Amino acid sequence: xxxxxxxxxxxxxxxxxxxxxxxxxxxxxxxxxxxxxxxxxxxxxxxxxxxxxxxxxxxxxxxxxxxxxxxxxxxxxxxxxxxxxxxxxxxxxxxxxxxxxxxxxxxxxxxxxxxxxxxxxxxxxxxxxxxxxxxxxxxxxxxxxxxxxxxxxxxxxxxxxxxxxxxxxxxxxxxxxxxxxxxxxxxxxxxxxxxxxxxxxxxxxxxxxxxxxxxxxxxxxxxxxxxxxxxxxxxxxxxxxxxxxxxxx
Length: 249
Description:
alpha/beta
């Protein structure tokens, strides 16, 4: 009997194949745009996937479920469920592309960075949904210390208790099984403090996991590929070199 095709994850999916000649199974990166868990930002979606494709890496943009404006109902676990399903869908051949299932990464911005970090720190029961590498761009990490309260409220509702905040603070979830990460932020980000990025990198180092952290002195929140901030835009070159070091290019 022919196996049923893998289910498409909840949310809107855009598949962007790697550029260049066919050379067998390639790595794939799942792109998670930011938006405070209220929306998904267009400039952190397909443009980023096309940049990855230009590096010779397949990409999938996932516009995961978000909280309707004005909603007070907790959104969790819908985004994480969608992200886990997306990784499983990719590894099961759902994209129709030649993907190396051992080289499936995740890249997230801001609240999408929180989702990427949360996905990267799932337990062993979800090991088949855990990515093999993580890229975090000005991420929300802690829901406790210097938290982005808009993301917390959208994800957990306005009455989020301390236990719920702790359980979804990605720095607290890191173990030795968490994948290596490339993390960047700007030092004067006035929306999501740079301490979030530092906390995640420190947690990885303490767990014996490789992490590369870049902190740029200045730059507004939400820069994406940072085309209008030349110094910060060097993050794409540094990230490409990091992917090369992983053997993904």
